[in-house]
Every structure is written in structure tokens, then in C-alpha cells.
Amino acid sequence: MPRKKKAAGIGEFGGAPEVADWGGSLTSMPLYWMFEATQASLGPARALADAGKLYFKNPVNPASHTEWGRKVGAMCEVFERATRRYGKPEFGIESVLWRGERVAVSQEVVWRRPFCDLIRFNRALRPGVAKQPKLLIVAPMSGHYATLLRGTVEAMLPDHEVYITDWTDARLVPLSEGSFDLDDYIDYLISIFHFMRGECHVMAVCQPAVPVLAAVARMEAEGDPYSPRSMTLMGGPIDTRENPTAVNQVAIDRGTEWFQRNVVTMVPWPHPGAMRQVYPGFLQLTGFVSMNFDRHVSAHKEFFQHLVDGDGDGAEKHREFYDEYLAVMDLTAEFYLQTVDTVFVRQALPKGEMTHRGKPVDCSKIKSCALMTVEGERDDISGVGQTSAAHTLCTGLSDDKRVHYLQERVGHYGVFNGSRFRAEIAPRIRDFIRWNEPAAQKAPAPAKRPAESGGVSSAEETAAGPLVTGSATKTQVRAKPSAPKAAASKPSRKPAARGGKASAPADDLTRITGVGPKIQSQLNEAGIFHFWQIAKLSAAEIRALEERFSPPGRITRDKWVEQAERLTHAD
Length: 571
What we know:
Number of domains: 3
Distance between the termini: 75 Å
Oligomer: single chain
InterPro entries: AB_hydrolase_fold (IPR029058), PHA/PHB_synthase (IPR051321), PHB_depo_C (IPR009656), PHB_depoly_PhaZ (IPR010915)
Pfam families: PHB_depo_C
Strand order of the largest sheet: 3-4-5-7-6-8-9-15-16
Number of strands: 16
Largest sheet: 9 strands, mixed
Helix content: 25-40%
CATH class of the largest domain: Alpha Beta
CATH topology of the largest domain: Rossmann fold
Protein name: Polyhydroxyalkanoate depolymerase
């Protein structure tokens, strides 16, 4: 029987109707109890399967050397893994390669609240090493644990002092600790920025893009001196009206009330968070799996075959992936429903209707915190254009404080993990952070990109390295430039005469993605003023030029030669 009725947590965002304070309907209320009962009833069978796996994999057992025995052992392991409840994984980052040497890494909780720990990754660097930028990675609170960003942390550790938000499973937080909603999430972020005294750069992966942007907007509107130096938003749903995906459409079609009635339930005893209203992790996992059900079935068939064939590497890759993928956490009902309503149903942020503690979230107030947005070309969760919409909202930022980058041929998870993230995206984020460090030597205002490029601005460079490159031709960023068009650098010497017309006016080399005014000046000093000169660079000349830029590799990585060839023919 439902308790006394009260206004739902989303009331301040849209006036949801009154509902029973345990959350869902009579259908959803017993879901968690049924799940726990199922887990308990499968316990004996799971234990028997685990024993069978050990028995049929023991080399002393003759049956383990037969195909039949291997199949029985494989079936036991598949059953045990498919029915177990996966606990929170470990980051497991014990060392990192730093400047050619392997250094030890340890974890330390440096800030704590009931629903979040802030973890710092300490590297055992040599004494006297210069301080590196502080990077706060805000992990998504959308079902999986922060360990999903293990690869992200590893990629950023060599060049940054890395911190990450480690959100707590709601079923482990006693009801006495109070509620946790979207306003509380933003409060936590502001508190962390204060703890770090503003001497940090923040990276928001997927879901946190909205609260991070809102937190920075509120801080700058209040003149808070502890606002971060830069923010990188990656695959986040800033404006879900842009290129809506199936995930966005489900939220719009069903509405907040449907989720409130059908997926909100209560944590059962004996969990510490008993009686707390939550969106349970097992329901989220059901949604994750159902989106690609055939793929998961095929993966488990392949896992079974790997076990039978004795393919240890293939089986271990499967275990590593699913140990992470199947580990899920509960979300508080108030946070989940507010997020659905604010971000996906009402699109309150891009419409200028979002508030925090009753005060408007106005992104145009952001003037000092630089903005970088990153999207994946094949992202089927946050469509192309949803994250870059942040540039439209942040009208107070100058062009040299904004960058957008679209990574080709990657989906949602490829935006923050995998080989392309390490090789293409992470270097650009490092350059962006370096550019926005106080010690960076700023270049003049950048030249406005040609209208046909559709980019926010050309990549800016510092003496230590470039800001960032962008593949902005793939998506239209609607930010209005606030700086006047800079004049092209005047030649300081005659260009090398290797074909082409040396006497022709110098080209605007900043039209090449990855070249800003500083790099253009360095190219001019090397006698390069035209696209055709870059197009005809030899391997030896490229190596010589690379020595002028730090970190090296950008000429090849950003494909300057190929770009220059296209621009030469276009002009």
C-alpha cells in the first residue's frame, strides 16, 4: 500500500503530478524484490556450476582432455558468469609510461561525500619534476561505474595530474544521508572545483556534460574565482533536438511520467540503502543489452567456443569486457527522473529554461572557462551536433577559447576509449589544456575560418604546442565569432622556390586544420608561405619541421600534406 503522497522530485523543473512517495506503480514496486529472490534461488545452481567448471578444467581429471569434458566445463562457466551479480570493478592502474620510464601509480580518495568519492591518481615521479595540469574527469552517473573510463584515465595520466569522480551505488547509501538530485549533482561539482581552487581543467564524458556546463555557468554568473580553466565536453546531450537518436526519441515518446511509473522502485532489505527510491541497475542493464541483444548472444557463443578450443586470449578478452559491462549501479530516483525530464524531455538547457536552486543557468555568462567539444561520427547515443551545441549557448567566449572536434569512424564509446581516442582525440585534448594553462604564451586572435568550413575556429598554437585540431567540416557549429578577422601573417622572407609561384601573395595557412597563427608564423620563418609548399614536403623536410613543434607528429597526424594538396587545387 502506498504511503502518503507528495510532489515528485521533478516538481521544480515542471510540476510533475503527485505520486506515491515510494515512486513507481504497483507493477514496478516489487521488481527489486523479485530480482533479489531470483538471485538467491540461483545461488545453489551457480555454486554447482562453479564447482563443475573447476572439476572439468582440472588437468588431473582425464575428462578435461576430451572435447566432451571441455564443453561441459565451458557450459558451466558460461552459466555461472551469466547469472552472477557483478561487483564494482577495480581501476587496476598500477603503473604508467612517463617520459620513457615506467612509474608506479596509486589511488587516493581526497574528497568525499555520501554519493561520491574524488579519487586522485598519484604518480611516483622523480623529485623536482615540474607540475603538470590538473585534470578532473567527471565520470557518467548513468549506470556503469567510473572504472568504465579506465582507458581514459590511462591515456591522460602521462601528461596530467588526474582526478576522477567515483559515484556511489545508491543502494549502498543509507536513507538517513538524504536525497540526491540533479541540483545536488551540480552542487557536488562546484564543491569539487572549490576543493581544487579552480586550478584544474574538467573533462565531462557523456551524461555529465549538462551538469558540468551548468555548474560552470552558475559559477561564472556569480563571479566565483574557482571556476575551472577549461572544460572538455565529450559525447554529451547538451541539445537533444539536434540529430535525435533512438535513445532521445524513447524519452520524448514516453515522457517522464512513464519512467516514474514503470522503472522506479525501492531498494529491499538487507542493503544499506533499504527503502531508498531508485532506478535499479539491473533494469538499466536490461536496457543496455536489449539495444544490441543479437551481438551479446553472439559474443557468448564465441566465448563458449573459445573455452572449448582452449583459446585463452579470446576468452580473457571476453571476461575483461563483460566484467566491466555487466557491473552496474543503482541511481536515485530523483536524479534519474530530473535528468530525463530536464535533458531529454524538455531540453531545458538549450531553451534557457534550466535552473539550479531556483536560479537560471545562463551559459552566456561563461567568459573565462575555455570550451572544447568532442563528438563521434557514428555516435548512436548522443548524435552529432548535440555536444557542439554548447558553442551556441556560450556566446560570451572568444574564438580563441572555443574548439570543436569531430572524430571520424567512431561510435559513442570510441569518443573516450580505444585506439582512435588514444591516437587522435587525447593528443588534441592535451594541446587544448596546455593552451589554457596560465603559463601558455597566447597567440593573437585567430583568423576566422572560411564560411564553407563550418568550424568554430582554427586551431591555436603555443610555443609548447597547438591548441587542438578539429574536423569541423562534418558538423555545423553555430557559435558566432566574437573576434574580428585577423590579418594573414606578412611574409618575413621569401618562400623556398620549389615549384609554384614564389612571388604570389602568401596563403592563409590557418585554413589547414591544425595550423593557427603561431604555427603559421613558425612556418613562415622556415620559408613556407603557400599550400603548394606544404603539399610538396619530403619526409626529411617533415622531420625537420617537426622539431619546431611540440609534441611532435602533428604534420602526419593532422594530414597537413593532404589538406594542402586539396587547398592548392581548390584555389
